[in-house]
Specification:
CATH architecture of the largest domain: 3-Layer(aba) Sandwich
Largest sheet: 7 strands, mixed
GO biological process, one term: L-histidine biosynthetic process
Mean pLDDT: 95
Family: Belongs to the class-II pyridoxal-phosphate-dependent aminotransferase family. Histidinol-phosphate aminotransferase subfamily.
CATH topology of the largest domain: Aspartate Aminotransferase, domain 2
Shape: globular
Keywords: Amino-acid biosynthesis, Aminotransferase, Histidine biosynthesis, Pyridoxal phosphate, Transferase
Structural class: alpha/beta
Strand content: 5-15%
Strand order of the largest sheet: 2-8-7-6-5-3-4
Order of helices and strands: EHHEHEHEEHEEEHHHEEHEEEH
Number of helices: 10
CATH superfamily of the largest domain: Type I PLP-dependent aspartate aminotransferase-like (Major domain)
Number of strands: 13
Number of domains: 2
Low-confidence stretches: none
Radius of gyration: 21 Å
Subunit structure: Homodimer.
Helix content: 25-40%
Pfam family, one: Aminotran_1_2
Distance between the termini: 48 Å
């Protein structure tokens, strides 16, 4: 705390990202990074972009990348917004749409950046409890609100809402913005992007960090009605007109051009997820159904903190959340078959009761 801070800074509880430990021979399964390399086309594009052009500012509109994304999803460039990771895109959305007299609604167990943004921007919010199966129950979201946001699949649970259920909500909520945060949608769900032309209050956000293995470049997307995108652009240009650098732009564009590689990696992760789920169940874990690149698991007869600590001693890192209702759960990123095998190998040495 400093006497030089603005008053609001003293009240902030910042988001705590997943640990990035510097340990040798680490099996890192705690931050939902893609275990596979980016497309070879991405590496080639990055190498080609490292030239004298780096002395120039990038295009502030990122039009080439936006057009690439628009063509990929069957949209127009005016329906696409890009930012420095989906966290920045979400921050701009909170500022642009959710500073209302009525509360923003989101789940009680969800992406923990949401309440951080609310405190930063002075947004009134109300959390809606997940049901007993840790799924998002939509009926409470039909109450009067100043906006709705949730991930699909949800994080950290991995549970998926069907596209039909999302449209059910949109049909009953036309007076405020609904943001569907699709960071993990490529691992098993149907994107709500097919609904953006039908519902002008729908904004869909995505990231290239997970399924496209570009977490190190920080590229996020938002797609929706042109009026919503214009609102985001106004906020961006009041904050940072150049969020996407030249290297990130060409890398992202190249990623969308290599559909075969993208599809192959997603299939491999989905297959590994299902195998890991079966192996964990064999060891006595309860595993929530996941449509993401991670599993949310609970062992009914062993403490989650103890399991995480024992794994860490053997160089395997998973994530534990000290939060009511889920403090007995671990979130485990789906790695390569070799990484998952190492996790299971260590768990077997703990002799967990079935």
């Amino acid at each position: 705390m400093s006497r030089y801070w603005s008053p609001i800074v003293n009240q902030l509880s910042p988001y705590v990202p997943g640990e990035q430990p510097r340990l040798d021979n680490l099996t890192k399964l705690n931050t939902n990074e893609n275990p596979y390399a980016p497309s070879p086309r991405v590496i080639e594009a990055i190498n080609g972009a490292v030239n004298e052009g780096l002395r120039l500012y990038p295009d502030p509109t990122s039009i080439s990348l936006r057009q690439t994304v628009a063509d990929y999803y069957g949209l127009t460039a005016e329906q696409v917004f890009v930012g420095n990771g989906s966290d920045e895109v979400l921050a701009h959305a909170f500022f642009a749409f959710f500073q209302q007299s009525r509360p923003l609604l989101f789940p009680d167990i969800t992406y923990s950046f949401y309440p951080v943004y609310c405190r930063l921007y002075g947004i009134d919010y109300r959390t809606i409890p997940l049901d007993d199966a840790f799924a998002i129950a939509l009926d409470p979201y039909t109450q009067v609100n100043g906006g709705i946001i949730f991930p699909n699949p949800n994080a950290p649970t991995g549970c998926l809402l069907s596209l039909e259920r999302i449209e059910w909500l949109l049909q009953r909520n036309r007076d405020s913005v609904v943001v569907i945060d699709e960071a993990y949608i490529d691992f098993g769900g149907d994107s709500a992007l097919t609904l953006v032309d039908l519902y002008p209050n729908l904004l869909v956000t995505q990231t290239l960090s997970k399924s496209r293995a570009l977490a190190g470049l920080r590229i996020g997307l938002a797609m929706g009605n042109e009026a919503l995108i214009e609102g985001l652009v106004r906020v961006k240009d009041s904050f940072n007109s150049y969020p996407i650098d030249r290297i990130a732009a060409v890398a992202a564009t190249a990623s969308f051009a290599d559909e075969d590689y993208f599809s192959k990696v997603c299939r491999q992760i989905i297959e590994s997820r299902e195998q890991l789920s079966a192996d964990l169940k064999r060891l006595g874990f309860e595993v929530l159904p996941s449509a993401a690149n991670f599993l949310f698991v609970h062992h009914p007869r062993r403490d989650a903190v103890e399991i995480a600590a024992k794994l860490r001693e053997q160089g395997v890192i998973v994530r534990h959340f000290r939060q009511p209702r889920i403090d007995g759960y671990l979130r485990i990123t789906v790695g390569t078959p070799q990484q998952s095998g190492r996790l299971i190998e260590v768990l077997e040495t703990l002799r967990l009761p079935n």
